[in-house]
Design goal:
The complex is a heterodimer of chains A (244) and B (104). Chain A has 244 residues and is an alpha+beta fold. In chain A, 43% of the residues lie in helices and 23% in strands. The longest helix of chain A has 30 residues. Chain A is elongated, with a radius of gyration of 23 Å. Chain B has 104 residues and is an all-alpha fold. Classes of the chains: A alpha+beta (244), B mainly alpha (104).
Chain lengths: 244, 104
């Protein structure tokens, strides 16, 4: 039976797992794979696992329990080992790396910040600020929408102006929050957000980080809003790409 | 968007509010520790999520959409900061064929 892996932590972790179950319809029991100072939380891997909402919630809930009681290295959703021995072998062969990563994550949380622009308010602001764009918009309207190529050309100019605002506001968000973070990792523009960025923040810097949000929100233009998600297990700071 | 920070800690049962999970689902799917020698289950054809990482402001379709949205914006109001308290799409729009002349 292959093993679905949730996270890696230290053998000394309290591991509060009573009542928790794993991913898949059969809600498999969780078990521990120990090797030296490390422990992996695993369950039997369900067949035909897909990323269904229910299973994402369970994956995150198992990690959340461990994370609430101590430092954890969360696995990406869907990692399956051939068996528990393979997990043990992995822990043994990378014990040093996992030990270092755990030390780096000690006392830190991930905070994810997403910023969105209210699109119509942004476009309205762009038109009001930019005489040329406003004049071209007016001309297209006067021509009952205008020719296809004129609409495309106008839209391209608008898009460039939008991209400029997105980059500018993203830069502002990062500039104001990065000083309070140990590490930073940018993500894709999920749901069209102009900034999606995760910060690894020490507990001792949380108050400063949170304190930087209100002035940031006041500085940003009115069409921009910024939401903070977290604290989260440090998903963004344990992958291979985050090693640098 | 209300501008209010969501800073809840993990619940006692270990799960975050599912609404928040949804907002960070790309972290669970695309980040986290990866072990190269293990298999990763397919997350193609996700039931719950599609992570739309396209560049949202480029391409002819986007240009036409921008032109279309700009074409129906009401620019006669005077408060460009109105967006702060309103969700997307809540700004006053011109109805088609109405007041086409009051621009600029």
């Amino acid at each position: 039976m292959s093993s679905y892996v949730y996270c890696v932590t230290r053998a000394s972790h309290p591991l509060p797992l009573e009542g928790a179950v794993g991913v898949g319809e059969r809600a498999p029991a969780l078990r521990l794979v120990r090797e030296q100072d490390l422990v992996a939380v695993v369950s039997d891997a369900p067949e035909n696992l897909r990323a269904k909402r229910r299973d994402l919630v369970k994956h995150d809930a198992v990690i959340g329990r461990i994370y609430a009681a101590g430092t954890v290295l969360p696995m990406r959703f869907g990692m399956v080992a051939p068996d528990d021995e393979a997990v043990q072998t992995e822990l043994r062969s990378r014990a040093r790396r996992y030990g270092e990563l755990l030390c780096r994550m000690d006392g830190h949380v991930e905070l994810n910040v997403k910023g969105v622009h209210a699109e119509e308010a942004l476009l309205r602001d762009l038109l009001l600020q930019n005489d040329e764009l406003r004049a071209r918009n007016h001309a297209l309207r006067a021509a009952d929408g205008g020719r296809h190529q004129d609409k495309v050309a106008f839209g391209e100019h608008v898009a460039a102006a939008v991209a400029e605002r997105r980059a500018r506001d993203a830069g502002q968000v990062i500039a104001r929050l990065q000083p309070h973070a140990a590490q930073i990792r940018r993500g894709p523009p999920v749901d069209g957000c102009f900034v999606n960025v995760s910060f690894l923040v020490a507990s001792s810097a949380r108050a400063d980080f949170d304190g930087a949000l209100s002035p940031l929100r006041r500085e940003l233009p009115g069409y921009a809003s910024v939401e903070l998600y977290g604290p989260l297990p440090p998903y963004s700071f344990v992958g291979n790409e985050a090693d640098v | 968007m209300t501008g209010i920070a969501m800073t809840q800690t993990p619940q006692a049962n270990g799960g975050r509010l599912s609404g928040e999970l949804y907002k960070v689902v790309e972290l669970i799917l695309d980040r986290g520790l990866v072990i190269d020698v293990f298999v990763r289950v397919s997350v193609i054809g996700l039931e719950v999520v599609t992570i739309d990482a396209r560049v949202v402001v480029a391409g002819v379709d986007a240009y036409l959409r921008f032109a279309e949205v700009c074409g129906r914006l009401d620019l006669t109001g005077s408060s460009p900061r109105i967006g702060r308290s309103l969700p997307d799409g809540a700004l006053p729009l011109e109805l088609p064929g109405r007041a086409r002349t009051e621009i600029g």
